[in-house]
Structure to design on (160 residues):
């Protein structure tokens, strides 16, 4: 049953990787181009926005890599190991990097929201920054739980 669940998660990860790859190839660069055409005063903020989109995509691919490694450990029934703890920590760092990249969106979004008189877009992208922070916090809690479980496992092995 666990193999089916990890297989489902792997399929979802592959779908997300394909979607982000296609968006990166065909759509991301057009966003910056359109922003510069529609909002001529946006300047450097649009360039920062474009760089942040691609940086967040690269960080996403790194996060997927470590999520895949964690799924491999689950399949091998080696979830409670030091390798899983290291992979979980690296996954958390990649997701925190994505939040930082999303925060770089905000100057350009502020200009667009101000010119279009649409403050909701600023709030929406603010929530986009907060989402990876929530996920990273949850992963941090899982990391501490795993660290505690490994400590108890070693302590139990030494007692017996």
């Amino acid at each position: 049953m666990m193999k089916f669940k990890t297989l489902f998660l792997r399929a979802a990860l592959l779908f997300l990787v394909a979607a982000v790859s296609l968006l990166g190839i065909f759509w991301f660069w057009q966003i910056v181009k359109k922003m510069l055409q529609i909002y001529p005063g946006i300047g450097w903020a649009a360039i920062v926005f474009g760089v942040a989109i691609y940086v967040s995509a690269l960080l996403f691919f790194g996060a997927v890599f470590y999520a895949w490694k964690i799924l491999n450990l689950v399949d091998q029934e080696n979830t409670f190991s030091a390798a899983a703890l290291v992979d979980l920590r690296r996954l958390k760092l990649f997701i925190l990097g994505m939040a930082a990249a999303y925060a770089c969106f905000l100057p350009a979004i502020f200009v667009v929201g101000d010119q279009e008189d649409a403050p909701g877009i600023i709030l929406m992208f603010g929530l986009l920054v907060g989402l990876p922070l929530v996920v990273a916090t949850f992963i941090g809690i899982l990391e501490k739980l795993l660290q505690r479980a490994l400590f108890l496992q070693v302590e139990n092995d030494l007692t017996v």
Q: What stands out?
A: The mean pLDDT is 91. The helical segments are 2-26, 28-38, 44-75, 82-103, 106-116, 119-159.
